[in-house]
């Protein structure tokens, strides 16, 4: 079922007309280099690129929305070599029927994974700097197919949906069916001014013995025509990935463009 939906997602730009696109492109970097600096310090270089977009098209009895998010970043410290700090690919296809009820029915399928290999590093001892492959590219991969009811509130500011869902995960070359459950997704997009916008995406999944939460909040400020400031906070609580909650905070300034 998910494969069918992704085929539709890839071919839908050719099949449907009147697509409306919105996307942001950001590239940020930072560098610090010291030599005989009495206050101390380390040579550091980091960069990160991100593409985040939404494409929408109406059809006869439904609205089609395709969301995609690609982020990748690396950093190096004191000549240790580049190590990735961010690596995520996410795509979602959602079809909803605007029948003007209190809530509208929808069906959605999404996939999420890392794009490159993941390594663990030894930073001390005789083998300092050695990298050991921990995970392969596109592994693990996660997908969720869900159907239920959703509604837009305050125009396009807030979107809420909840429904029955089936989660899959890929480890190695084996596909595992995780569990069925209930998925709730809440998205908000709040323009704070002409040059700044706050977005938040909250996702919760509750299944038999499985409870996972993912939340990502981003504040994007355009300080000049092609210069943006990004402040983001990402939290994941999923025991299938880690026994402890995962959190990532990032703030950056760099080149940005809005489509």
What would you say about this model in short?
The protein is mainly β and 259 residues long. It is built from one helix and 14 strands; from the N terminus they run αββββββββββββββ.
Describe the structure.
The chain has 259 residues and is mainly β. It has a single domain, classed as Outer membrane phospholipase (ompla), Chain C (Beta Barrel). 5% of the residues lie in helices and 68% in strands. The protein has one helix and 14 strands; from the N terminus they run αββββββββββββββ. Strands 1-2-3-4-5-8-9-10-11-12-13-14 form a twelve-stranded antiparallel beta barrel. A two-stranded antiparallel sheet has the order 6-7. The model has no long low-confidence stretch (mean pLDDT 80).
Average pLDDT rating: 80
Q: Briefly note the structural class of the backbone.
A: mainly beta
Beta content = over 45%
In CATH, the architecture is: Beta Barrel
Q: Please give the share of residues in helix.
A: under 10%
Instruction: Give the low-confidence spans.
Output: none
Strand order of the largest sheet: 1-2-3-4-5-8-9-10-11-12-13-14
- Shape field: globular
CATH fold topology = Outer membrane phospholipase (ompla), Chain C
Give the C-alpha Rg.
21 Å
Number of strands: 14
CATH class: Mainly Beta
- Supply the number of helical segments: 1
Number of domains: 1
* N to C succession of SSEs: HEEEEEEEEEEEEEE
End-to-end gap: 32 Å
Q: Main beta sheet, described?
A: 12 strands, antiparallel, barrel
